[in-house]
Design goal:
This protein has 11 helices and no strands. By secondary structure, it is mainly α. The chain has a domain of 180 residues: Hypothetical protein af1432. The radius of gyration is 32 Å and the shape is elongated. The termini are far apart. The C terminus is likely disordered.
């Protein structure tokens, strides 16, 4: 009887004596990577908190300056808050995307007269009418205001509004005598709400104008002082809502109509 030939044995995998150490090193590396990621996220969160704090500090400083200016002129008390509220509400109706794209737009309305901080007090607080030389100085405040705000990057969207809020639709305004749609849309919006608030607010020399009369005056200025389309939407907004101009709500009802954004200069 012939004995069976034994089959050759297949050698098993050769154990690498360094593999456990490599595996342990990979685990340690993964832990360290996770810790680095956690620390980086913590640093990013801290940086965001610092930036938010800086923004709040900048805004608080600018708002304080604006309120100091307003406090010097007793005839305009509350003007900043009202024009901010009216302006954002009107901008939302005219071009909702304008408000969405520029969350700081409301600060531009509030800070529109920040440049008056650079106007001599004897001119700013003069009780009688300004002479020609004094008016020339006073007309510098939009440019001064734009220069104050321009270095603050998160308020960059407000610079055009502040510089051009005294332009007129017919080109007779200042500081750059822009005409029509050359004037930024935000400045065209502000021109209407600024005039409306001035007319419907009490002054030492007169009482507040009735809403209907104020709207008539705004309509008469369409095409000369104001953008006619902005006037149309503003008049509709006022007529649709019951407003107490002494107690402007913090947030007005949502827009019912809107027009396409116009080209800004």
């Amino acid at each position: 009887m012939i004995d069976p030939i034994p089959s050759p044995s297949v050698p098993g995998p050769i154990a690498d004596p360094e593999m456990p150490a490599v595996h342990e090193q990979l685990i340690v590396f993964a832990r360290e990577l996770g810790e680095l990621y956690r620390l980086e996220r913590a640093r990013s969160a801290e940086l965001e908190r610092v930036l938010a704090s800086l923004q709040e500090t900048y805004l608080a400083t600018m708002k304080s300056l604006a309120q100091v200016i307003e406090a010097k002129d007793r005839t305009t008390r509350g003007h900043l808050e009202r024009t901010q509220t009216y302006g954002v509400a009107l901008a939302r109706r005219i071009a909702p995307s304008l408000v969405d794209a520029s969350p700081t737009l409301g600060y531009g309305f509030f800070l529109h007269d920040i440049g008056k901080v650079g106007i001599p007090e004897h001119i700013l607080c003069k009780e009688g009418p300004l002479d020609d030389g004094e008016w020339e100085v006073m007309r510098r405040h939009p440019v001064i205001g734009a220069q104050i705000i321009a270095p603050i990057s998160f308020l960059s969207g407000a610079v055009e509004l502040i510089r051009h809020h005294h332009e007129r639709f017919d080109g007779s305004g200042y500081p750059d005598a822009l005409r029509g749609e050359e004037i930024p849309l935000t400045a065209r919006v502000f021109a209407v709400v600024d005039a409306f608030d001035a007319m419907t607010s009490e002054r030492p020399y007169r009482g507040p104008m009735q809403l209907e009369r104020a709207l008539d005056e705004i309509r008469r200025g369409a095409g000369a002082q104001f953008d006619p389309e902005v006037v149309r939407v503003f008049a509709q907004m006022i007529e649709e809502e019951s407003w107490d101009t002494d107690e402007v709500p913090e947030e007005l009802p949502p827009a019912r109509t809107a027009i396409a954004p116009q080209r800004a200069g």
